[in-house]
Amino acid sequence: MSVARITTLSANSKTSFDAAIKEGVDRANKSLRNVTGAWVKEQKVEISDGAVVAWHVVLEVTFVLED
Questions:
Q1: d(CA 62, CA 67)
Q2: What's this model's pTM, rounded to 2 decimal places?
Q3: 3-state secondary structure of 29
């Protein structure tokens, strides 16, 4: 049997939602062990002068706790 924990983090990118998700997952893997999944809880964009200039995501990252 295993026990998992979920933590919330936010990430952003200047290029796309996909890049923001990858940035968040890559960063989570630097600090957390046994990352098994991530749920994109929220997405939003930053707009300046009518154009999208940044993509933001909020992720729920799941990781399995060690014994």
A1: 16
A2: 0.89
A3: helix
